[in-house]
Amino acid sequence: MMKYQLRRSSGTPAYQQIIEQTEQALRLGILKPGDKLPTAREVVESAVVNGNTVLRAYQELQRRGLVESRTGLGTFVVGTLGSADRVDGSGLRQELEQWMTRAREHGLEREDVMALVVSVGDACFAERAPEGRAR
């Protein structure tokens, strides 16, 4: 079951962190259509967050067509994102883990590494976005 790790010091609102973590799990294939998200009460208890925050995130995920709320049953994944789960046999994940370990050994903090990854990713993918996809 999905477990949210909210970082209060990140500057990102808690509801946005829930959305981002859910989308990441969808991109990585951790969550698949048919999977049930934790109830708002479970998230409130485990992440120590306001219930309205969880409901706001789930409503936004539903608006995006990624989840569906079923009365009396819970919230279920109905959509998917990306294809990062297809790289399992390519060695890309292992290379990235090694690179991240080296970055950490060089004294970079998580936020530094993430900023660098986003910056390089933006530059690489802006050069040649696939047809029909926004850059």
UniProtKB/TrEMBL annotation:
GO molecular function, one term: DNA-binding transcription factor activity
Regions annotated as coiled coil: none
Keywords: DNA-binding, Transcription, Transcription regulation
The UniProt record lists the keyword DNA damage: no
InterPro entries the record matches: Tscrpt_reg_HTH_GntR, WH-like_DNA-bd_sf, WH_DNA-bd_sf
Top-level taxon in the UniProt lineage: Bacteria
Pfam families in the cross-refs: GntR
Protein name per UniProt: GntR family transcriptional regulator
